Amino acid sequence: MRIIAVKRLNVLAAGASGAALALFPEATSRWIGTVPPDVLRAIGIVTLLYGAHVLASSLRTREVRGELLWFAACDAGWVVVTAAAILIGAISTAWGAVAAIALAAVVATFGVFYRREARRTAHA
């Protein structure tokens, strides 16, 4: 998959999840478990900012290795925080866990593509 497609899919995922968390934190909190709505709102806002950064990056014609590594690190962070939230019981409903794991799998895939592209960019 081309990195531009990865970035655009990442923007869609970050936009959808960030908007849900930022705009509907109370409902999301009830749906996933015990994460306080204010925490979810903050995560949503940061996720929307991340998505805006990825979108801006997707509009450039040249890849920046450090930026690709930053995106990969952010994606890895999302996966680690998701796993921790499930393990400590903050994400405690069955549907919340399924949704969180599914999103984390998608985000991890984005991270792998970013890391590969960063490696390719370093050798170009």
The secondary-structure element order is: HHHHH
How much helix is in the residues? over 70%
- Radius of gyration in whole Å, from Cα? 15 Å
Secondary-structure-derived class: mainly alpha
Overall pLDDT level: 96
Number of strands: 0
Q: Which percent range describes the beta-strand content?
A: under 5%
Q: How would the global form be characterised? A: elongated
Q: What is the tally of helical segments?
A: 5
* Distance N to C terminus: 18 Å
**How many discrete structural domains?**
1
Major sheet characteristics: none
Uncertain stretches: none
What does this molecule look like?
With 124 residues, the chain is mostly helical. It has one domain (3-122). The protein has 5 helices and no strands. The longest helix has 29 residues, at 94-122. The radius of gyration is 15 Å and the shape is elongated. The two termini are 18 Å apart. The mean pLDDT is 96.
Provide the descriptors you would attach to this structure in a database record.
elongated; 5 helices; 124 residues; 83% helix; mainly alpha
Task: Give a quick precis of the structure.
With 124 residues, the chain is mainly alpha-helical. It is built from five helices and no strands.
Topology:
Layout: H1 3-23, H2 25-32, H3 37-58, H4 65-87, H5 94-122
